[in-house]
Structures are given as C-alpha cells and as structure tokens.
Design a protein that fits this description.
The protein is mainly α. It has one domain. The protein has six helices and no strands. α1 packs antiparallel against α4 and α5 packs antiparallel against α6.
Length: 153
C-alpha cells in the first residue's frame, strides 16, 4: 500500500530496489548450480572470476526488481484511480507481477499462472490483514482469571 504523500513512480522505484536486493540469494544459488556443471579445471578458472557470479546475479535481480516495481506501480495507480484501498488493487498488482514473469519466460501461460498465484496470495493476505485479524482481536480468552488486586500476606 503506497503512502498518500508518495508518488507511484517513487514507490515503484523503492519496491523495485528492495526486490532486487531480496533476489541476491537466488542469484547465488543459480551461480552455484552453474558451477556444478563444469569440470574441475573449468571450476578453478571460473572460481576466481566475479563475472560468473555477476551474470548469475543479474538475471534474478532484474526480474525481481521489475516485478516489484510493476506490482507497486499497478497497486498505486489502481488505488489512485478507484480512490480507495481495497483488495482489487492487490489483485491488479499481482497480475502485473504475472505479466513481468510472462514476458521474462516469453510464455502467456506462465504469465497467467504466476499472475493468478500472486493475485490469490494478495487476496489471502488482504483477508487476514483486513478481515480476520480485527475479528480475532475481539475474541476473549477463557481460563483462570488473573487477580487485579495484589496478593495479601
């Protein structure tokens, strides 16, 4: 949810940078997987090269940054257009993430699948944060009552 005093572009840039930083472990696992396929001599040559790791890091970082920025901008623009913060803005943001992954894979099916998954995750998140959590706050706990008065000796 974008703060009201922040533009959608700056919100998208911030979330894109955050998602790029969050993708660094993905790139490290990808680099490790690429190194497993090489012979020992090739590994020794490439282990000292930061280019291998840099290339392996760049792909996930760019994808995650684009997905985070697309989600933030779509969410913010939908909230501005509708004039309210509801579940629809999260669903549109999730579909934007699906569009980014669909473009990355050059597959409409992958884009629809990831978009549906992210939109569903946003619906579940909105349900628990906006509906279920306030309901659970009103639930009274049963059990032994705690005494408000100090124990006398």
């Amino acid at each position: 949810m974008a703060p009201t005093n922040e533009s959608c572009v700056s919100y998208g840039a911030k979330l894109g940078a955050l998602m790029a930083a969050a993708s660094v472990p993905v790139g490290f696992f990808r680099a490790h997987g690429d190194l497993k396929k090489l012979t020992i001599q090739e590994k020794l040559i490439r282990m000292n090269s930061f280019r291998v790791t840099g290339r392996a890091l760049w792909g996930p970082m760019a994808t995650f940054a684009a997905a985070g920025a697309a989600f933030a901008v779509a969410d913010c623009v939908t909230q501005d257009y509708l004039g309210r913060d509801d579940s629809l803005s999260g669903v549109v943001g999730g579909l934007a993430v699906g569009a980014v992954f669909g473009l990355k894979r050059a597959s409409l099916v992958a884009g629809i699948g990831v978009g549906g998954l992210c939109a569903g995750a946003m619906l579940v998140t909105d349900f628990f944060t906006k509906i279920a959590q306030p309901v659970f706050k009103d639930v009274k706990h049963y059990g032994p009552k705690e005494s408000a008065a100090p124990a006398s000796q």
